[in-house]
Amino acid sequence: MTPDIEFPEGFIWGAATASYQVEGAAREDGRGVSIWDTFARTPGKVADGHTGDVACDHYHRYPEDVRLMADLGLDVYRFSTAWPRVVPDGSGPANPRGLDFYERLVDELLGAGITPYVTLYHWDLPQNLEDRGGWASRDTAYYFADYAAAVHARLSDRVSTWTTLNEPWVSAFLGYGSGVHAPGVTDASAAFKAAHHLLLAHGLAAQNLTGTLALTLNMAPVVTPAQILDAGIALSAEDAGAVGLVDALLNRQFLDPALKGVYPREVLEIVERHGGLDHIRDGDLEIICQPIDLLGINYYNPCVVQASAGAVAPLAWPGADGVDFVSIEGPQTAMGWPIIPSGLSRLLVRLSRDYPDVGLLVTENGAAFHDKVVGDRVPDTDRVSYLDGHLRACHEAIEAGADLRGYLVWSLFDNFEWAEGYHQRFGIVRIDYATQRRLPKDSALWYRDVIQRNGIE
Ligand code: PNW
To answer: What's the CA gap between 337 and 410, in Å, rounded?
Structure first.
């Protein structure tokens, strides 16, 4: 039987996690300390003092976890390598035992017919480098390239798809701007330096990597409340200005340097007023703009804004004065994030139009809900409908011409949700943290069927 909605042949289906969120084993086999260890162990930073010390214990349970992935029929597992496992002090000698773990994981995946997609940085910067300035320091970009080369040297005979960074906007503006993420700094000028040095790190690392190269960004269509209801509505000059400014800060600050070798004019003007432009050196944009094969898209919801004369920029949005970040009515996830699948099709179509030379891959999409266990099931119908809606949006974008190659759900497991600790559950597989028992939710069983039919019923 042909499903209602069918994806192109060869469409890639998978699921994603990140090292600090699932591995645990924080003190094993020579792993160094990361900024997330320090941050989570600092009282008041993470809900209820939760840390990633144990997390899903994936470091020890990976064989069972890979069997589960195979049962679900995943083509791809996207995970990240922890810099402090591989280079405990951030720079200097590699730790072979850290690399051994990733080699074991990759071999297990390949043995199960699952393709590993490696992300080299998903936020766990070695603490020793933070002590030397972190991402606000240019040296960190060069150390990242060395670390990336060490992972690549060990795994490139088995891994062919490499992502340098996950969501540099979040690293820079939640890590050094609002400070709600590690390292918890609140300094706009440090945040813009971090953003640039992260881009530089991407370019430097990409120069030494072979295979299929990717950069993953958190992106969102930036819209006014009226545009959610009517995409074609005309905006006032003020609202158009607010939309353009936030789009420049969130999306084009990273897209344009990486894919076109230029910074948006609006961003340069803002950076000039927040610490200056000296850290952007001649030649940097040529390094940053390396040819890449895939743009990874992490989409959760649109960014809704409108002009508001007196509004002061929130700490995560330096330069966005006169912009009101609007919370809108309507269905939400447990994170309080609005559920708007059309935002994903809009984003994909726009990216394919504005950046036509790069393939697109949804590297994260998913939702936290207040799941309940009923007997031996988790009837998470809200998550099934979230995923169903967003997959239909992907299909719509493909029909409209977007070059979308695949979809990876966030997340395979419930895991350490950063400042929210273990309270927010994004998994399609439930983790009972007391016993570490894995229980596929109804959404996992539904996803297995979607993968099997390459479509939605
Ligand atoms: C992403 N925001 O994080 C990350 O890549 C994941 O590690 C994370 O678990 C997932 O989304 C769910 O949160 C984000 O505030 C965190 O805009 C915050 C934001 C965006 C993405």
So the answer is: 15
Per-residue pLDDT at 1 exceeds 70: no
Nearest to 113 by CA among 77, 65, 78, 61: 77
Name the burial class of residue 377, with classes exposed (0-12), middle (13-18) and buried (19+) by CB atoms within 10 angstroms of its CB: middle
Please give the average per-residue pLDDT across 411-435, as a whole number: 98
Mark out the alpha helices in 73-156 (DSSP H runs).
83-86, 96-111, 127-130, 139-155
Q: In which residue are the tokens 């920029």 written?
A: 313
Question: Model's pTM, two decimal places?
Answer: 0.98
> CATH class for domain 5-221+247-300+335-456?
alpha beta
Q: What is the pLDDT of residues 41-82, one digit of tens each?
A: 999 999 999 999 999 999 999 999 999 999 999 999 999 999
Instruction: Report d(CA 170, CA 147) in Å as an integer.
Output: 21
Cα of 218 from ligand 1 centre, angstroms: 8
DSSP state of 267: H
Length of the chain in terms of residues written = 457
DSSP character string of 424-457: S---SEEEETTTTEEEE-HHHHHHHHHHHHTEE-
pLDDT digit string (tens) for 151-168?
Answer: 999 999 999 999 999 999
Q: Tell how far the Cα of 82 is from the centroid of ligand 1, in angstroms.
A: 17
Instruction: Name the 3-class secondary structure at 2.
Output: coil
- ipTM, 2 dp: 0.95
342-354 vs 381-399: helix axis angle to the nearest 10?
Answer: 30
Residue nearest to atom 19 of ligand 1 (CA): 170
CA distance 167 to 74: 23
Q: Dihedral (C-alpha) 138, 142, 147, 152: value to the nearest 10 degrees? A: 130
In this predicted model, what pLDDT tens digit does every residue of 347-357 receive, in sequence order? Answer: 999 999 999 99
Tell me which residues have their CB closer than 6 angstroms to ligand 1.
18, 21, 166-167, 170, 218, 298, 364, 410, 417, 426
Nearest-angstrom CA–CA distance, 74 and 68: 9
Radius of gyration from C-alpha coordinates of the chain:
21
Domains of the chain, by residue range, sit at 5-221+247-300+335-456
